[in-house]
Give the backbone structure.
Amino acid sequence: QLPLVESGGGLVQPGGSLRLSCAASGFILDYYSIGWFRQAPGKEREGVSCISFVGGSTNYADSVKGRFTISRDNAKNMVYLQMNSLKPEDTSVYYCARSSSSTRNCSIAEYDYWGQGTQVTVSS
């Protein structure tokens, strides 16, 4: 069983919403920070939003501030990314990843296990 599995992606019109889910298994989510990253074709992977296991502090990329919200439910071993007011430039494969650091930063090098990704397409 994969340690991280994303779901919730799909096709949505501009201005619409999606909620991505990241299901963690095989480890105790309480002790890990989780990040959402995305990668569009021909572009580098970038951090979208990350949440620390310490106090649940969060971090957002400037491009998604005010539109996306990250949250975690340790009891359910789940992390969510609520995406509102979606734009065509949000189209990407979205990945969740875990870090054993208390970081809330989306520094790719600090994340060890990655999910397989879920496609989000924003188009009319």
